[in-house]
Specification:
Elements (H helix, E strand, L loop, with lengths): L9 H7 L1 H14 L6 H13 L4 E5 L2 H11 L7 E5 L5 H8 L3 E5 L10 H7 L4 E5 L10 H11 L2 E5 L7 E2 L2 E2 L6 E5 L13 E5 L2 H11 L20 H10 L3 H19 L14 E2 L5 E4 L3 H10 L29 H7 L2 E4 L7 H14 L1
Parallel strand pairs: 2-3, 2-4, 4-5, 5-8
Antiparallel strand pairs: 1-9, 6-7, 6-10, 8-9, 11-12
Helix pairs in contact: 2-9, 3-9, 4-5, 4-8, 10-13
The chain binds pyridoxal-5'-phosphate.
Pyridoxal-5'-phosphate (PLP) binds next to helix 4 and helix 5.
Length: 368
């Protein structure tokens, strides 16, 4: 029996709303509204409303979003910015590109999100901000993080790239920090058909500064008030995202339902650790990531049987070649280090069927 279960299936999602996407693309082409313009303005308003934010500043991708937020907060050489040891490299690389030094903290043992106790001990007189990541779609412990930020007068930028619509104590991620960044990379919970990103904030002056920085340093053509970069959301991506946005709550429910199916099928299997959700948090399952002591052999077994998986991420940030200069050791980040050899992300997308999930569960059971 040859089964083929993809890790994600973007084609299925397109087919389910094909007429809406095709009409959105045709409208942009009809108006030649390719760079900024009404489709971009409309998406910014809709996305701000959807995530319960005041301002949304769109940009070219979720990596630029992090850079723009830090540049607007006036990060200076010599500043230190605290972030998690377990994330995609954008989070830490943009700290460096904004001119500061990334200071990594270990994650907690069960949720894969930054450990607030580790943040407290990483704060120095040079610390200016904290970037928690709502990893895999689960909010970080925002009460504890915001308390540390208030105590030491630090800004907080939430990296929400994997966590659209996730909630902590009933409030949406992105509403806790001074700013929050989103990615609409095609595979994200809300994905464009190319690169796209956004920053949300409740701070009007910060929003204006981020907009300027993203558009060559000015909001009016040829009036460059500062030096910026070119990080624009294009009209096609904005129109596609506006067409998809109304479906996001439904797709999020479907991911949560699929996660519950995996939980029920896998949590009795010795050697499998299913993802744990911390108190007061709703997880939106951008990824469904289990832990297994023989991870590589399990991944190979699933692949041989037609199931695609992924490792997010095979090397924790402090141990990447890019950070060799810091000479970090595994003892400094015991949880992140332990997790990197145990984590495995299973097929997860809104359209995954119960039969596909039972096939994955059956294979994992037969492996164990
Ligand atoms: C995807 C992602 C980013 C970067 O977003 P891009 O749109 O790919 O630039 C940043 N942080 C995290 C945690 C991500 O998952």
């Amino acid at each position: 029996m040859a089964i083929a279960i993809p890790y994600a299936d973007l084609q299925l999602q397109y087919q389910s709303i094909k007429s809406e996407i095709d009409a959105a693309i045709a409208a942009v082409i009809h108006d030649s509204a390719f760079i900024r313009g009404p489709f971009v303005d409309a998406f910014e308003k809709k996305f701000a409303r959807a995530v319960e934010a005041v301002h949304c500043v769109s940009c070219a991708n979720g990596t630029d979003a992090l850079y723009l937020a830090m540049a607007a907060l006036d990060v200076q050489p010599g500043d230190e910015v605290i972030t998690t040891a377990h994330s995609w490299i954008s989070t830490s690389a943009m700290i460096t590109h904004a001119g500061a030094k990334p200071v990594f903290c270990d994650t907690d043992a069960t949720t894969f999100t930054i450990d607030p106790a580790a943040i407290e001990s990483a704060v120095t007189p040079r610390t200016v901000g904290i970037i928690p990541v709502h990893l895999y779609g689960q909010p970080a412990d925002m009460d504890a993080i915001m308390a540390i930020a208030r105590k030491h007068n630090l800004w907080v930028i939430e990296d929400c790239a994997q966590a659209h619509l996730a909630r902590y104590k009933g409030k949406q991620v992105g509403s806790f920090g001074h700013a929050a960044t989103f990615s609409f990379y095609p595979g994200k919970n809300l994905g464009a058909m190319g690169d796209a990103g956004a920053i949300v904030t409740g701070d009007t002056a910060l929003a204006e500064r981020m907009s300027m920085l993203a558009r060559h340093g000015g909001l009016v053509k040829h009036q460059h008030r500062i030096e910026g970069i070119n990080s624009r959301l294009d009209g096609l991506q904005a129109a596609i995202l506006s067409a998809k946005l109304p479906h996001l709550p439904c797709w999020t429910d479907a991911r949560q339902t699929a996660a519950a199916v995996y939980d029920a099928g896998l949590n009795q299997i010795e050697d499998v650790t299913v993802p744990e959700v911390g108190p007061n948090r709703t997880h939106v399952y951008h990824l469904y990531t289990i832990q297994h002591p023989r991870r590589d052999r399990l991944a190979a077994y699933l692949k041989d049987n037609g199931v695609q998986t992924a490792i997010n991420y095979p090397v924790a940030l402090p141990f990447l070649q890019a950070y060799e200069r810091f000479r970090h050791t595994p003892e400094q980040f015991p949880n992140a280090h332990r997790h990197q050899s145990r984590i495995l992300s299973l097929p997860m997308f809104a359209e995954i069927t119960a039969d596909q999930q039972q096939a994955v569960i059956g294979l994992i059971r037969s492996f164990s």
